[in-house]
Amino acid sequence: MKYTILPGIGLMIDSEQPGKKVWILALTHGNEPAGLYAQELFLNAYSNKITSGQVYLIQVNPKAYQSAVRFIDVNMNRIGKFSQDLSRYEDQRLLELMEILKKLDVALDIHSVPTEIHQTIGIADLKHLDFSRDVLKTDILLVDENFDRAGSVVSFVNRNGGIGLGMECGSHADDFASQNALQSILRLLVKMDMLDLNLDEQDKKTEIFRFFEEIFPETLNFHYLQSYQNFSELQPWEIFAQDWEKIYKNQTLAPKYLGIIMDKVILWDGMGFLFEKLS
User: Which of 39, 179, 202, 271 has the greatest number of beta carbons closer than 10 A?
Assistant: First the structure.
């Protein structure tokens, strides 16, 4: 087994046998440390058991982590939607990672949330539904048929022929969260024939939702009209948020579900999403 520090990038663990290239991403948002803890657990207990290929442990936004903030200039998971502006730190960082991102087979991006949650959430391209369900085994799986056009780091992997997966594994500093993420790392490597390990897990029921619309604030006055729980059902034409005179409502004839709800308004960053539930 060969361990190589990639300056400014992360750590590469090379089995020195032919195989796939897998990235495990943490700190895409600098205030979400659960993925970093999961990387440490994997490195200490399982990295010497890799049987083929290469595993990369990457800290995506180290500068934001050092400052204990979500991002420095712009959300790392949105910059792919906009033209590149190299005056912004996150654009510079993506440029540093881009050449390796183009060559990956799979990337797993691990996130956590500031509030206590009891549901784990996975994110994937609709065409990778079965693969992501097997690997992530989350309570909820969010899929998008337009994933390739999203602004996230893992959608960039998708656009270049790989498989990009994301997960919200729990609360930031909760041991439960880092253990959830570790299990997904292990399942991914077993699925890719890179780890010979019997995980002996039971099947898990997963609710599946499709992305419908992202909710963007226009001013710092944006607020939800009540304390919604993740994936609260919104009835047709139900008003759920307001920003000065602008109102936000479910403008369809079918129920929608409000999820990935943020607790603090940051301009140019989403406050949540509307989803539709798939059978």
Answer: 39
Q: Would the pTM count as exceeding 0.70?
A: yes
pLDDT tens-digit readout, 194-238: 999 988 777 778 999 999 999 999 999 999 999 998 899 999 999
**195 φ, ψ to 5°?**
-145, 130
140 within 8 A of 120, measured Cβ to Cβ: yes
pLDDT tens per residue across span 161-184: 899 999 999 887 778 899 999 999
